[in-house]
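Take a careful look at the sequence and tokenised backbone pasted below. I need to know what the token row says about the fold.
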Amino acid sequence: MSYQAIARKYRPETFDQVVGQGHVTSTLRAALRKGKLSHAYLFSGPRGCGKTTVARLLAKAINCTAPKDGDPCGQCDICRAIARGGDLDVLEIDAASNTGVDNIRELRDMAQYSASGGSSRVFIIDEVHMLSKGAFNALLKILEEPPARVYFFFATTEPNKIPRTILSRCQRFDFRLLGRDELAGRLREVSAAEGVTIDEAGLRLLVSLAEGSMRDGLSLLDQVIAGCEGAIDEKSVADAFGLVASELFLELNECVLARDPARALRLVENLAAAGGSLDGFARGVVTNFRNLLLLRIDPQLATMIDLPPDRVETLRRHAAGFSEQDLLALIDVSARHFERLHRSTQPRIVLEASVVEYCRFESRVLLADLARRLAGAEAAAPAGGGNAAGSGRPGVPTGGARPVQAAPGRSSAAPATHAAARAVERPSYAGTSGAGASLPAVGAGSVAAAPDLTSADRAVPGWTRYIDTLMKKHPRLGACLMNGLPERDDEAGCLRVAFAADKKFMVDSIAGETSLLATLAEAQWGQPLKVLLEYGPRGQKAEVAEEIRQEVAPTHREELDRACAADAALGDLVDLMGGQPLPESERRRWDPPKR
């Protein structure tokens, strides 16, 4: 008798033997017991997770002559015929090679005939998303109104490609990838049944290669068993698939920590001389840095690493030599190098360049942290003390200090103090910084003592703060009034706002909301004020509107420039590092921890 692959030999015979899909099998068994089985099911999910197996089990259970609690007996003639694919009432079709309308019409004609031996006819269509549009249309009618005792079971890895008209006529079950423990348990059982011992390191590596697919795991195990004698360890698995030994990644970590590119290049030379996979090594480097990041964040995350405990412990010691920012940057760099190497016609040169870059890697320091350190150093310096010898600019590191690079994904424009950080990172116009926001509420005739008043504030003290309040509570009103020039008339008890003639449409859109403006004006200036909107030659000029816009709704660049102007050390730091504010979508606040 010819050899039977392990994945076929140990195919589940009952629903209980299906690993990791209890949410599917329990529902189907309940439907069988209650006699509430639907005529059409769609099984979707990743490859090798049991979709077709469950469809065959369901076909057996429907036609079995002696079912037991929803499970097929597996012993009757019908169960055996279905298992070997020889039952005339259970037809399994590969949609990838039967995509046309004629194929589905033939299936539709076959569905009209009664079952020959079993009680029902079952059509299992694998990879159903491969059917053409015309084939799906030909399937619609019979799928909606099938003949008595006819069932359709569809399996697919891409349910998004199936028309909604088909999906609406099926009960859908989503299969999932298996967890590490589930895969390991099943592979251990199969190994024992085959009379082969497998150690934990080898089993862990097989599970990692299977990537959650039971069929892939069994096929990999089958291949390893064929090439070894009696016992399976990590080396036998690595040799069978040409994998890179994990010790090489530990050695690479030591090269990076020791800043030793020569040793790293010799590592690549030995790998290439031994015929190792350069592509596999580059891929493994990304995973290695990921493992270091997990251990750097929390040592308890070691359970997420597919390595033996002794190597995890070595990784834990290596992780202590990196910061989180370093590892995030290394993951990004190594991933880009892997993509380049994967497409390159000279992969060895790319890999050599990449390991040199890892060893020459400069540690990342958040500029916000550096600025806070500088501020702390200035605060700790003796009163009246000058700058360090040789320093031409205050707050800038001199001497033999290593240049600090901005962390990838972080803003190079970092504030020198926590207060400055809030000013620079303020995400919108509704903030707590800026001259307009800092003006006190003033009464009629008083003058606000602020050195950077806008033209509008000089005309009506507190106007910028009034606009800022509107922008927070009623942005549409604030955006309109920002284009007008105010004038207080205390005798008439009103606030006149003049606009240029080309602003008529904008002003007309808020003309009916002057009562709301008056209420807010009374809260701002502490006395009842009518708000009158008018046109005329006194209408605000464009440069005055720009002044108010910069005060009330500054851009991130303007906020940074303002912060640098107020803090010479911060300005020097931003100039030195070439700092730029990040886009809003990438900004994150890095406040110091609360004490």
